[in-house]
């Protein structure tokens, strides 16, 4: 049971995005309203910040935005760290432009801050967090809400349509699309709220790192001094921060949408994918801004419709599903029939078994799978049409279905900038048994439909593209790590 949301928020136009995480009351005597961001790292069109402003204006208080980056999140690496810090730097710059104070802490050997969120919350009237259904943002917010004496309000910033307006009874993608499409127009535009008070300039329980003033070299030094995986190289495919996201939006308008309907399933054509998913995952852009770009583009209507279906139906369907799962990254989220048939076939002979090290580095006996994996390893991203083949082949490359699931999550989450996400977990689950069961029979897979590489190999130039992609050379060799038995559910550190 949770307390009702404050009256000011209940009257807000985006109120369906907000829910309480505990029974604590708002304390009007607080010095500010705290907005603790973990993943929605943008200052504009950010419902978490806007909700905080809505309540703060009602209380006559300023908003204090906080973002911290620890060293001990799962698979912390140079690749992830630098991308996050670039987003956080621009978050601070845009907060200042909106008249908001933004403070930051980057964990490192010479600067550690234990319990910082609790200390910041102790001076607050209430705390706003993101309503994220997966990974660290979910369990840290839930743990914090259960231990603080401040009201904690979670706000959905990832979806165009707040999942709460759709109801809890949708059981298929078709039913989701049928309910989602008619209300999309209601959420394409939102009024930006303006703070009614000056930015907070009072005392803080720590010295902020002030990323706003950092150069790229300064960010590199933060990364260098962090106790993280330094062997996973940066991805030149994804420049950090808002500039990187805006370049992708421009590319979407000029290069991707005009031919999207024909090119989207062709991994050999770079214009077939927007490559926006890392920026969406870390909240550098939101679906509203992307849809505005789609509407402004000069492109065929069917291309715009198909792109909107991928962004708003499939992505938001995976977010909707994840809300109802205790842990969307766990093996038991796979449909029951798929688990039954995969486990019934677990004793089958597996001639395609590969070592984890060979899979990690894309050095298996399967050229097409290696081409897929090298995209993860080098680019930190994989074309959507390759992901299904990649995921299904892992079932045959590993000793049993549970190991296959753990391996897929490990490779996705360690290497990909859009890993650790409802969409990527949903894609993996679809590889393991999305849709209807087929005939029982194939070794290893049972009733789970298999997939060939024909959609890429049989295209003009497809075989040559796969050969070249499989031979791409990663800049470093990574250390193999043990697979987690239950990803991210053990050994959690407090905030």
Helical content (DSSP H or I, runs of 4+): 40-55%
- State the separation between the terminal residues, measured CA to CA: 23 Å
Strand order in the sheet with the most strands: 1-6-5-2-3-4
Instruction: Report on the biggest sheet.
Output: 6 strands, mixed
Can you describe this structure?
By secondary structure, the protein is α/β, with parallel strands linked by helices. The protein is built from 20 helices and six strands. Strand 2, helix 2 (about 45-60) and strand 3 (about 65-70) form a beta-alpha-beta unit.
Which helices and strands, and how do they pair?
Elements: H1 7-10, E1 18-20, E2 32-37, H2 47-59, E3 63-69, H3 78-97, E4 101-106, H4 116-121, E5 124-130, H5 135-147, E6 152-155, H6 173-180, H7 216-224, H8 241-256, H9 260-263, H10 277-281, H11 287-296, H12 301-323, H13 336-344, H14 356-360, H15 367-379, H16 384-397, H17 401-415, H18 422-433, H19 454-457, H20 462-470
Parallel strand pairs: 2-3, 2-5, 3-4, 5-6
Antiparallel strand pairs: 1-6
Helix pairs in contact: 3-7, 6-12, 8-11, 11-12, 12-18, 15-16, 15-20, 16-17, 16-18, 17-18
Write a compact overview of the structure shown:
The protein contains 20 helices and six strands.
Short key terms for the protein model shown above:
single chain, six-stranded mixed β-sheet, alpha/beta, 495 residues, 6 strands, globular
């Amino acid at each position: 049971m949770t307390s009702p949301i404050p009256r000011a928020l209940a009257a807000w136009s985006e109120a369906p995005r907000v829910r309480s995480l505990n029974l604590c009351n708002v304390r009007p005597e607080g010095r500010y309203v705290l907005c603790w961001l973990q993943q929605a790292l943008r200052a504009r069109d950010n419902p978490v910040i806007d909700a905080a402003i809505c309540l703060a204006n009602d209380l006559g208080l300023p908003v204090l935005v906080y973002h911290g980056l620890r060293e001990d999140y799962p698979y912390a690496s140079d690749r992830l760290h630098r991308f996050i810090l670039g987003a956080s730097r621009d978050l601070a710059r845009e907060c200042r432009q909106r008249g908001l104070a933004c403070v930051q802490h980057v964990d490192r050997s010479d600067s550690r801050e234990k319990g910082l969120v609790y200390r910041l919350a102790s001076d607050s009237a209430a705390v706003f967090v993101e309503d994220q259904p997966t990974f660290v943002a979910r369990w840290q917010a839930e743990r914090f809400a259960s231990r603080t004496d401040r009201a904690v309000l979670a706000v959905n910033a990832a979806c165009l349509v707040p999942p709460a307006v759709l109801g809890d009874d949708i059981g298929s993608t078709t039913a989701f699309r049928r309910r989602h499409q008619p209300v999309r127009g209601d959420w394409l535009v939102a009024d930006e709220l303006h703070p009614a008070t000056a930015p907070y300039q009072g005392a803080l329980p720590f010295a902020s790192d002030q990323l706003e003033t950092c150069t790229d070299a300064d960010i590199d030094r933060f990364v260098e001094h962090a106790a993280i995986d330094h062997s996973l190289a940066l991805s030149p495919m994804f420049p950090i921060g808002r500039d990187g996201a805006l370049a992708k939006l421009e590319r979407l308008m000029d290069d991707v949408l005009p031919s999207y309907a024909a090119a989207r399933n062709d991994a050999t054509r770079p214009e077939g994918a927007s490559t926006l998913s890392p920026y969406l995952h870390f909240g550098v852009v939101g679906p509203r801004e992307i849809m505005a770009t789609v509407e402004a583009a000069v492109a065929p209507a069917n291309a715009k419709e198909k792109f909107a279906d991928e962004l708003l139906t499939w992505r938001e369907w995976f977010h909707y599903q994840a809300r109802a799962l205790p842990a969307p990254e766990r093996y038991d989220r796979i449909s029951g029939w798929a688990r039954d048939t995969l486990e019934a076939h677990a004793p089958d002979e597996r001639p395609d078994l590969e070592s984890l090290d060979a899979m990690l580095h894309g050095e298996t006996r399967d050229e097409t799978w290696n081409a897929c994996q090298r995209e993860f390893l080098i680019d930190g991203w994989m074309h959507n049409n390759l992901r299904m083949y990649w995921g299904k082949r892992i079932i045959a490359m590993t000793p049993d279905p549970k190991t296959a699931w753990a391996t897929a999550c490990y490779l996705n989450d360690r290497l990909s900038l859009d890993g650790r996400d409802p969409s990527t977990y949903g894609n993996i689950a679809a590889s393991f048994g999305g849709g209807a069961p087929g005939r029982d029979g194939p070794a290893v897979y049972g009733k789970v439909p298999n997939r060939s590489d024909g959609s890429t190999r049989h295209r003009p130039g497809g075989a040559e593209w796969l050969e070249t992609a499989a031979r791409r050379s990663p800049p470093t060799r990574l250390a193999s790590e043990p697979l987690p038995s239950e990803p991210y559910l053990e050994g959690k550190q407090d905030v």
